Amino acid sequence: MADLFQHSIHIILAAQAPSGAYVACPNFPFYRYSWFRDGAFIAYAMDLVGEHASARRFHDWAARTILQHADTAERAIGKAGRGMPLGEDYLHTRYTADGNVGPEGWPDFQLDGLGTWLWALAEHARHTSEPLPPEWAIVVDLVVRYLVALWSIPCYDLWEEHPQHVHPYTLAAIYAGLQAVAWMATADHRLATAVDGQLLTKVADEIKRFVLTNGVRDGHLVKSLAPPSIPAVDPLSDPLTSSVDASLIAIATPYRLFLPDDPIMLATVADIIEADLHCVGDGVHRYRADTYYGGGEWVLLTAWLGWYYREIGEEARTRELLHWVEAQADVNSYLPEQVPTHLLAPDRYAEWEARWGPVAKPLLWSHAMYLILRRALESIGRR
Ligand code: BGC
Predict the structure, then answer these.
(1) Residue 234's pLDDT is what?
(2) FRET partner for 120 with CA separation of 20 to 30 A, picked from 126, 181, 240, 256?
(3) Is 157 a catalytic residue?
(4) Residue minimizing CA distance to atom 7 of ligand 1
(5) What is the C-alpha separation between 153 and 168, in angstroms, rounded?
């Protein structure tokens, strides 16, 4: 479907604010913000389709926004170093297009988006020939120090839930971000930072060891964990630490904490798909207990699974998932966040619709994951 490809690019460009921020969904009041997580994947997709100027404008927005809140980040680093609670001192997961904190409360303490931003920044450097603006180096240094100081502190997960835990998804995003900075800091990778390369490697190794030691049960990854400061929790008394989540795909694709064909990843994906989250239709659910808009099938996760399958060479499966994603586009070529098919909690759908209106659409992150999947498929035969 050539059209959806071009339309996705236009939809993303049209929703990019003059400041460079990617508004998560222009038609959904609570999503008229720019998330580091969504934005990093969107910028990556734009780099893949040759829209480098758009990606750069987002990275520039992200760098300016973080700098605008640098004092807060420094206070967080200081407090974490002294073992003090952060209170209100932390970088938010989303800001307005002008880089400000929004008026309504939000589960804003999330660390994955900043790790993913560093990863996407390195991908931007990989895909473009222009040097990165040297002023970004100060921001990268700050974000690295922030993540190094805070990685083991419990925070909300990527679905903005479960703040008492740490999450393999989040840890893998941080791991990928630190590795990306280590790569950018080496010769020719175009960002001269003051970052201590050995420290990066040490912390990245520590994160990987922690996930390997605590985050794998019965051969597969689990959704969430007790933080390193608390002794491991009995999985029976804490179901979160034994359940799975579709976002665990990201631990390999793209974060590379494990390789896509690592037996742990193969088992994790088999569990997610065969047993838990891909049970009826072709779309992927987030996790079993999901009740948000009744727990539908997520477009971005289905595309993500296709991206993973492409990486392990399962082309036919990748195409099936691509077709499912394409079939979710409406007459305007808009892709939603999720579709209300095979709902996990059908009795909870109406309540969300009454509270926040129809499901967010177009969701820029869904369009971005579609573009990434299309590019992944096109690369078959070129490698
Ligand atoms: C999701 C987040 C996402 C945000 C904006 C939330 O409902 O849980 O992962 O970043 O929407 O798209």
Answers:
(1) 62
(2) 240
(3) yes
(4) 159
(5) 13
Whether the pLDDT of residue 325 is over 50: the answer is: yes
C-beta 298 within 6 A of ligand 1:
no
Protein residue whose Cα sits closest to atom 12 of ligand 1: 24
Of the listed ranges 52-61, 132-141, 349-358, the one predicted with least confidence: 132-141
CATH architecture group of domain 2-382: Alpha/alpha barrel (1.50)
Would the CB of 37 count as within 6 Å of ligand 1? yes
* Residue-wise burial string across 246-282, b where 16 or more C-beta atoms lie within 10 A, e elsewhere: bbbbbbbbbbbbbebeeebbbebbebbbeebbbeeeb
Ligand 1 contact, 160 CB (< 6 A): yes
| The predicted structure's pLDDT at residue 227 | 85
Rounded (to 5) percent helix, strand, coil in the chain: 55, 5, 40
Which residue among 22, 31, 247 is best mutated to probe the pocket of ligand 1, counting the most ligand atoms within 8 A of its Cβ? 31
| pLDDT tens figures, 212-243 | 999 999 999 999 998 887 766 565 567 777 78
Q: Is residue 382 over pLDDT 80?
A: no
Active site residue 160: yes
Domain spans of the chain?
2-382
Which whole number is the average pLDDT over 85-102?
Answer: 97
Mean pLDDT of 23-39: 96
**Helix residue ranges per DSSP H, 32-129:** 36-48, 52-68, 70-81, 112-127
Q: What tokens appear for 137 in the block?
A: 């180096």
